[in-house]
């Protein structure tokens, strides 16, 4: 993917996580945009790893992505614990902003897809204000079903963005990108989860102290107790890694 050769990765249960730093990741994706070839970027955490272990089609989606960055603290810990560390955590929220910073130098076109009509509109307005040299070439909310997929893909392809950020449900976001990656023909497409909620001001990102202590997940749980069921994947992942220590990083 980058000009200097293949991306160094560590396999966590068969999922190839990038060992690149944030700076190297941004440079790699800059080259990806210039190449004009479609790349899917997944910002993955332990919840997604556990989902892939339970769902073969999700595993296939993750294994076929061009780049998987260690978004979750648990992934960074697991790689380190098993003796094959990544360089650092690469949070998807920060990666989005870094790409837009670089994109200003090239007047990159950006398309935003997902969330509610109010959130996506406010996100577009705020990102354009923050990064005046990028071009917001289109946006639409995430309220569409499979019957409208082709129409949505056609409108994105017509807008011809360099970057496509997709915020849909965790279980649909990555499979949707995977399914339509070739049809979209966007150089870099990345799932961004709840990033639009934060950018639009609908929700707050964890305070700096929580970020520093790597407890963003705990802050989210405090604010949204309904996430508790999903969060159970975190201790399950940690226990599984400790039990499987010798085999976690072996390719599957």
UniProtKB/TrEMBL annotation:
<dbReference type="InterPro" id="IPR034714">
    <property type="entry name" value="TagA_TarA"/>
</dbReference>
<keyword id="KW-0777">Teichoic acid biosynthesis</keyword>
<comment type="similarity">
    <text>Belongs to the glycosyltransferase 26 family. TagA/TarA subfamily.</text>
</comment>
<protein>
    <recommendedName>
        <fullName>N-acetylglucosaminyldiphosphoundecaprenol N-acetyl-beta-D-mannosaminyltransferase</fullName>
        <ecNumber>2.4.1.187</ecNumber>
    </recommendedName>
</protein>
<dbReference type="Pfam" id="PF03808">
    <property type="entry name" value="Glyco_tran_WecG"/>
</dbReference>
<comment type="pathway">
    <text>Cell wall biogenesis; teichoic acid biosynthesis.</text>
</comment>
<keyword id="KW-0328">Glycosyltransferase</keyword>
<comment type="function">
    <text>Catalyzes the conversion of GlcNAc-PP-undecaprenol into ManNAc-GlcNAc-PP-undecaprenol, the first committed lipid intermediate in the de novo synthesis of teichoic acid.</text>
</comment>
<keyword id="KW-0808">Transferase</keyword>
<keyword id="KW-0961">Cell wall biogenesis/degradation</keyword>
<dbReference type="InterPro" id="IPR004629">
    <property type="entry name" value="WecG_TagA_CpsF"/>
</dbReference>
């Amino acid at each position: 993917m980058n000009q200097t050769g293949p991306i160094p990765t560590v396999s966590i249960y068969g999922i190839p996580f990038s060992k690149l730093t944030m700076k190297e990741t941004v440079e790699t994706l800059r080259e990806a945009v210039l190449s004009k070839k479609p790349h899917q970027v997944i910002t993955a955490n332990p919840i997604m790893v556990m989902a892939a272990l339970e769902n073969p089609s999700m595993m296939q989606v993750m294994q076929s992505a061009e780049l998987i960055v260690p978004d979750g603290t648990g992934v960074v810990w697991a790689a380190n614990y098993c003796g094959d560390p990544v360089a650092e955590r690469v949070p998807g929220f920060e990666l989005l902003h870094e790409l837009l910073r670089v994109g200003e130098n090239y007047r990159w076109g950006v398309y935003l897809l997902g969330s509610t009509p109010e959130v996506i509109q406010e996100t577009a307005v705020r990102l354009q204000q923050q990064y005046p040299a990028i071009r917001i070439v289109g946006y639409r909310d995430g309220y569409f079903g499979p019957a409208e997929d082709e129409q949505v893909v056609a409108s994105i392809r017509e807008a011809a963005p360099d970057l496509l950020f997709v915020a849909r449900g965790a279980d649909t976001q990555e499979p949707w990108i995977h399914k339509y990656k070739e049809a979209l023909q966007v150089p870099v497409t990345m799932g961004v989860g709840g990033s639009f909620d934060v950018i639009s001001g609908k929700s707050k990102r964890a305070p700096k102290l929580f970020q520093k202590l790597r407890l963003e997940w705990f802050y989210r749980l405090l604010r949204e107790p309904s996430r508790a069921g999903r969060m159970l994947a975190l201790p399950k992942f940690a226990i599984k890694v400790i039990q499987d220590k010798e085999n976690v990083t072996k390719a599957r």
